[in-house]
């Protein structure tokens, strides 16, 4: 009888799912698209782009605009996920080191073809020291890239070549399943020459209109290979906020009360990002050279204490690998008070004072104030907060002139390793001064592992070691919120790379 009831319930559930699917399809079909002349969007209060060179653009505003002007081998789709762009087909050699890409046809706004050779020239320029691109490291696993960076080889020796106009071959120094995901990043967009914004020759869904001190405009590119699928005619980006304007799209400021929004007209979209903020000790400096002291702080840390200080799209997290799809985290065990007492006993001190380096920023001030109160629950601990402008704070961290910092990390590519390499012993970004043979061994093991999931499992072990030794104490994952007019649909929100994707956007009648 129970079995029969279960079958009936399952059937009813299936019928309900089918009904909801059909209802949603009919609802979408019943929505009426606005005419082409009204397929426009204005984004208010957004930072304007500053760097038209894809190899040098590090700010999100420039990366976002460039990602709409160009289309590379891979792109960010309507759901924000990475998908093939100009790649028609990908084949890997039997040993996994050679990637062969068959390309779709693409032309620029000037009618010039984007070919395999376009990408060969681009990759060579990216890895060339004379370009001085901060993204050249993304090609470190390509044959001869490191030697070129050291000046031992010429850029022409890079492991990339055009078999013919539509066939691109890329050779890695080791097999690495999933490497192609890196190629979606803006640095790999096929920019044949760098010019002022309004003169850029582009191949993406949009072309540059005008750029001024207060606004930027993009227009549909009729030469784009899928122009018939692009509904949006014009994108206007204004740097002046206008949250009283109940239309278009608005990044939500940190202190804005969304309860004042007209829910009949506007909706709020919270978009998680790949950035993660954490407490970072300098493990060479006392008392943070004592693992028990670090662990006492990590165990005392209550993320709920800072939750009210976060922007609405930011979420407390215990993970360093915040883009990891697997819900797993190392559980640090122990008693914070006992550990702290043992440290005081070893140091022969009743009181310990530490300095927490923080940003000159309203949100950071609230977070660091709450963290101070939280950590000072340890009997005898005093936390002094030092706020510095971002540039000065970064310089102190890089030089190692700090003991404890409210810090953050925004990865440059969509792999778990992007969060972890900075803790390797000899990495130039290792401002924590962490040195561990076992950790370095895990990272090297991951590099030599081809299969993506096997590699990620090793990287999770590396994350676990950092958390268990309290080398890093994650606090929250970054995110952005937007107010969006409800007539818009199919906006993509990547977790990494451009802030949003408007290529597939459509505007309907309300």
Walk me through what this model shows.
By secondary structure, this protein is α+β, with helices and mostly antiparallel strands. It has ten helices and 19 strands. The strands form six sheets. Strands 11, 12, 13, 16 and 17 form a five-stranded antiparallel sheet that branches. A four-stranded mixed sheet has the order 1-10-9-8, with no helix packed on it. A hairpin with a 2-residue loop joins strand 6 (160-164) and strand 7. The longest helix has 29 residues, at 2-30.
Question: What's a concise summary of this model?
Answer:
The chain is an alpha+beta fold and 510 residues long. It has helices at residues 2-30, 60-69, 116-127, 145-149, 291-300, 336-347, 362-375, 390-399, 437-447, 452-468; strands spanning 40-43, 74-76, 82-84, 87-92, 98-103, 160-164, 167-171, 206-211, 215-220, 234-238, 249-251, 266-281, 315-316, 352-359, 381-388, 404-409, 473-485, 488-489, 506-507. β4 (87-92) and β5 form a beta hairpin.
């Amino acid at each position: 009888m129970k079995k029969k009831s279960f079958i009936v319930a399952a059937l009813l559930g299936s019928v309900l799912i089918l009904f909801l699917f059909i209802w949603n399809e009919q609802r979408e079909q019943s929505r009426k698209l606005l005419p082409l002349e009204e397929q426009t969007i204005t984004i208010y209060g957004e930072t304007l782009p500053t760097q038209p060179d894809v190899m040098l653009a590090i700010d999100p505003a420039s990366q976002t605009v460039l990602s709409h002007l160009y289309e590379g081998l891979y792109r960010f789709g309507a759901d924000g996920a990475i998908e093939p762009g100009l790649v028609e087909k990908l084949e890997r050699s039997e040993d996994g080191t050679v990637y062969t890409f068959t390309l779709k046809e693409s032309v620029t706004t000037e009618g010039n073809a984007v070919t395999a050779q376009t990408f060969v020239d681009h990759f060579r320029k990216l890895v060339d020291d004379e370009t001085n691109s901060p993204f050249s490291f993304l090609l470190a696993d390509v044959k001869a890239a490191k030697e070129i960076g050291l000046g031992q080889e010429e850029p022409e020796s890079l492991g990339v070549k055009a078999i013919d106009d539509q066939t691109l071959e890329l050779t890695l120094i080791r097999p690495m399943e999933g490497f192609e995901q890196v190629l979606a990043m803006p640095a790999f967009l096929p920019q044949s020459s760098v010019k002022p914004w309004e003169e850029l020759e582009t191949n993406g869904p949009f072309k540059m209109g005008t750029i001024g001190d207060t606004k930027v405009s993009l227009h549909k590119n009729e030469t784009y290979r899928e122009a018939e699928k692009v509904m949006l005619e014009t994108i206007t980006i204004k740097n002046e906020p206008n949250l009283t304007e109940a239309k278009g799209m608005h990044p939500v400021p940190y202190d804005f009360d969304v309860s004042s929004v007209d829910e009949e007209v506007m909706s709020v979209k919270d978009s998680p990002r790949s950035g993660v903020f954490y407490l970072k000790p300098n493990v060479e400096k006392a008392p943070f050279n004592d693992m028990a002291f670090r662990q006492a702080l990590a165990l005392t840390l209550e993320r709920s204490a800072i939750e009210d200080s976060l922007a609405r799209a930011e979420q407390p997290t215990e993970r360093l690998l915040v883009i990891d799809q697997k819900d797993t985290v190392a559980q640090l065990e122990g008693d914070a008070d006992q550990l702290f007492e043992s440290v005081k006993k070893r140091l022969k001190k009743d009181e310990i004072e530490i300095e927490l380096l923080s940003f000159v920023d309203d949100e950071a001030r609230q977070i660091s104030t709450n963290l101070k109160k939280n950590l000072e629950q340890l009997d005898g601990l005093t936390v002094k907060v030092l706020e510095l402008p971002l540039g000065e704070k970064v310089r102190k961290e890089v030089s190692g002139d700090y003991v404890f910092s409210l810090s953050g990390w925004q990865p440059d590519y969509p792999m778990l390793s992007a969060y972890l390499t900075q803790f390797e012993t000899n990495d130039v970004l290792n401002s924590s001064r962490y040195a561990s043979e076992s950790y370095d061994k895990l990272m090297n093991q991951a590099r030599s592992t081809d299969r993506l999931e096997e590699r990620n499992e090793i990287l999770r072990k590396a994350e676990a070691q950092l958390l268990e030794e309290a080398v890093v104490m994650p606090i929250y994952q970054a995110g952005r919120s937007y107010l969006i007019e409800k007539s818009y649909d199919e906006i993509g929100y990547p977790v990494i790379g451009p802030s949003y994707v408007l290529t597939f956007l459509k505007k309907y009648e309300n």
